[in-house]
Amino acid sequence: MDLMTAAHKTLAFDTRVRVENLDNGRVTEVRINDRGPFVDDRIIDLSRAAAREIDMISSGTAPVRIVVTGMPSGCRMVQVGAFRDEANARALADELEASGASARLEPGPDGMTRVLIGPYDGEAEAERIRSRYDGVIQPC
Predict the structure, then answer these.
(1) Enclosing domain of residue 33
(2) Is 17 within 8 Å of 66 (Cβ atoms)?
(3) Given this model, what pLDDT does residue 1 score?
């Protein structure tokens, strides 16, 4: 609880995540080292040290934005969509994040914006997600 760590339901262990407190704009970076949170409307549980850094100790919770900044080697992402209109890609990513998935946008060389979820620790977990969304597995 005194290290810059966090729990997330799906992100691979050792993934680095930037967390922004949307109430005050303060930002911290943490490493995912646990599973959770196990409360439906929460997307990440921060250690006490990380919560202190973005001034969340007194409130206990806050709306946050998370951005993956680094992923462990050997991890997998699942592409679940590709769109010519970036607004459509953003809408899907927002919908996925609202359901607890960690989504990101990635521009493709063909002008399409891809929607990726993950990362996942291994091929088996990525395959389970791939089949659920009829997606495509790719390395991180």
Answers:
(1) 5-70
(2) yes
(3) 84
